[in-house]
Amino acid sequence: MKTKAAFLIGAGVGYVFGTAAGRQKFEQIKGQANTLWHNESVQHTVSDLQEKATDLAKNQGGALAEKVTSTVKSKLKHDDDASGGDTATANAFGTGSSSSAGVADGPTTKSSAPDVSDWKNPS
């Protein structure tokens, strides 16, 4: 019983001292990180990178949207050709036959998905 009590007291004291030292080290690291973040050259670099990312999104966003649209269209067309109908489009939008729960098997119908060919390029 004496050994168990000594162990618990030692563990408690170690925890308190360890936590205090750990907290002090954490506060030191936090202060250094805060000083670094507010450094003028770091903030200048962050600002430059934000501008570059914004320009890239403006310049390449439209091209990326068109590439995604054409890829999806070609995939849907390929699936339609392989199946002999409009089942790929119907399945892509959850309106055709599927083995998923909640979707009834049966004849597929034309999907009411929007035609993306007339979407405007945002740039």
Written overview of the protein:
This protein has 123 residues and is mainly alpha-helical. The protein has a domain at 66-96. The chain has three helices and no strands. It has helices at residues 2-37, 40-83, 87-92. The longest helix is centred in the middle third of the chain and has 44 residues, at 40-83. The termini are far apart. The model is unreliable at 97-106 (pLDDT under 50).
Name the overall outline: elongated
Radius of gyration: 30 Å
Strand residue percentage = under 5%
What integer is the average pLDDT? Answer: 76
Low-confidence stretches: 97-106
What distance separates the N and C termini? 77 Å
What order do the SSEs take from the amino end to the carboxyl end, as H and E? HHH
DSSP summary, beta strand count? 0
- How helix-rich are the residues, as a percent range? 55-70%
Main beta-sheet strand count, sense and barrel state? none
What structural class do the secondary elements suggest?
mainly alpha
Give the helix tally. 3
Helix-strand blueprint:
Layout: H1 2-37, H2 40-83, H3 87-92
